[in-house]
Each structure stands twice: as C-alpha cells, then as structure tokens.
Amino acid sequence: MIIILAWMAIGFIIAVYDHLILHTNTSLGPSDDYSFAISAMRNVGAGLIGALLGGSLLVFYVNVKYRDKPYGYTLLFVSVTFICIIALITLIMAAIIVPIKTGRPLYDPMSEEAFYAFVTDSYPIKNGLVWSFIVAVTQLLLQMNSKFGPDTFWNIIKGKYNTPKTEKRIFMFLDLNSSTTIAERLGNEAYHALLKDFFADITDPILESRGNIYQYVGDEVVVVWKFKEGVENLQCLRCFSEMKKHIGEKKEKYIYRYGIVPSFKAGIHCGRVVAGEIGVIKRDITYSGDVLNTTARILGMCSRFHEEVIATSDLLSELDLARGFTIRNLGAIKLKGKEQEVLLIAVRETEADQ
C-alpha cells in the first residue's frame, strides 16, 4: 500500500514537472493535443499499475525468493522485469487513452494509427528511464528495511529514538542445542551454512508473530516485541511453537544437507528497558536494562532443567494461559549476577495444539 500511494504521488509529480517544462521560455510549448489532465491520468495510472504489478513483485517475490542475494543481483532481475512491465503499462495506457483522445474505438483506423504513434513515441522511453531510477531506489529501501528490520529502519528514518525512551518490551533469547558439538562435527563452513539456513527459516514465524529480530549473537538470536503486541494472542509464546513447526516442515532439507535437524531452546522475560539510537557511521537502536541480562541467564536454565522454553512469572502473569499451554513451576532461582531470586516457569504447548 505504501508503494502504491508513493508511486501514484510520484506519477502526479512527473506530470506536473512535464507541464512546467513545456511552459518554460526555453520550450517550444505543448503540442495541440496536449492535456494536463490526460498527462496526469497517464502518469498516475502508470504509477498505480506499476505498483500493483512491480510493487507486488518486489514485496512478495523478489525480496522473499532472493532474500539472501546481493543487491546487485536482485537489481538486475528487477531491471529486466520492469522493462517488460513498462512495455505492458504502455500498451494498457494506450488502450485507455487513445479512444478517449480520438473519440473512436481501438479498431478504427484513426485509433490504430494513434495507438501506434502512442507506443512508439519517445515519451515511454523517458518515463522508463525515470521509473527505472524510482524502482532502484524502492528496491534499495526494501533491502535496507530487511537488513535493519522493519521497526528499526523506519524508527531511524523518523528519528524516534534520537532521545532515549523507556519502554516495556518482551525479549526472547533463542539458542541452538548442542551447538559446539554440531560445529565440531560439521566444520566451520558447513556450520555457518547451517546457521544461515536456520536463521532464514525462523524469520517468517518471528515476523508473523509481530516480533522483531533485535540481533544475532553467534548461534543465538534475540527477538523483541512491543509489550502489547507480544501479549496479544500469546504471540511471544506461539512464536516458539511456530518456529518448531517451520523447522519440522524442512526436516528433510536439514537431514540431506547437514545430517541433523536443529533443535533449540528459549528464555523469555519482560520489563522496562531504555531504547535509544547509537552510533555515527553504523547507526542502530539498542536496548539496555536488566531485562536483557535476566533473559540471557534464563536461557541458560533451559539446559539445567531440560526444558525448551522457560519464562518468568512476571511475563506469564500478564498472559492468559487458560488453554493451549501447560506450565511447570521451577521455583525461585537465584540467577548468576543477580541478588534477588527470580520465579521461573517452564512452558509447553499442549499436544492437541501442536
């Protein structure tokens, strides 16, 4: 929707720009059949059709299928595709505009001649050059959005965290099981490939649960939710179940490539943190507070208690676990580096809901 609105607005700006150029002192002026309304309709319509076809291609295909490809690779694919789309748009706009201008149907000889003149005019070539630049910038912004994360990128653009803010967030620290043993068995290159596949495969479940990937640390990934979004419909807990399901569906791929199916564990906690933008050359939004240290320590408790997911009572008291999950109280545990004990609870999804 953002691309549709932006490209339609750009189409209107192009029409205004052309109009101003035609009425400058250095111009011979517009032709007899020039109409600003027709020009605006042509450019705005091109923006709409281009966004519906090309924008959808970028969002739902290129940036999914070629998610781990270099920007230059995707740009080449997009450029070739958009040449075809621009040609298609030119034909569509000709089929709409020519009958309006001639007042006759397309099969009329006069309309056929006007149609040919329309599609062979240099105007589509000029627009093709302009829209190629717009598409390249759009693709760059989409790639940056994927690199930084949806929330992070736009928050940096808006400057939301130039001044640090205190917010309530939910954090999940997720870690591969037996990562050291797996790394020794596979070797560095194969282990890196495993991590790349694993992180890629759990991305969609994280995003679909309205989580945001905060950072990767070795074989760990840190996921963060805005408190309201993480609590709603138990998203912060269901995210783990969806990741397990997603990896299970790709079981054959992992066995074929690596001889194992990765399993993982997670610690989840919530609390208030300070969110702020840091860095000059490489800007980022970071969170600081005791919540992160506590969540990291909770993750370490999963191995001790042989549990997949351990959360704190602070978080679970905010959730409605009436159905779908079972819990096991692990008691008040004194975590490393903390003076006060923390009440930990193991959480499992019921068999019927898995």
Could you write a compact summary of the structure shown?
With 354 residues, this protein is an alpha+beta fold. It has helices at residues 2-22, 36-65, 71-102, 109-120, 122-148, 150-158, 179-186, 188-201, 203-208, 227-231, 235-249, 251-258, 290-305, 313-316; strands spanning 165-176, 212-217, 220-226, 264-278, 284-288, 309-312, 325-333, 342-349.
Element layout with pairings:
Elements lengths: L1 H21 L13 H30 L5 H32 L6 H12 L1 H27 L1 H9 L6 E12 L2 H8 L1 H14 L1 H6 L3 E6 L2 E7 H5 L3 H15 L1 H8 L5 E15 L5 E5 L1 H16 L3 E4 H4 L8 E9 L8 E8 L5
Parallel strand pairs: 4-6
Antiparallel strand pairs: 1-3, 1-4, 2-3, 4-5, 6-8, 7-8
Structure notes:
By secondary structure, the chain is α+β, with helices and mostly antiparallel strands. It has 14 helices and 8 strands. The chain has helices spanning 2-22, 36-65, 71-102, 109-120, 122-148, 150-158, 179-186, 188-201, 203-208, 227-231, 235-249, 251-258, 290-305, 313-316; strands spanning 165-176, 212-217, 220-226, 264-278, 284-288, 309-312, 325-333, 342-349. Strands 1, 2, 3, 4, 5, 6, 7 and 8 form an 8-stranded mixed β-sheet that branches. β2 (212-217) and β3 (220-226) form a beta hairpin. The chain is elongated, with a radius of gyration of 27 Å. It starts with a helix and ends in a 5-residue tail after the last strand. The mean pLDDT is 86.
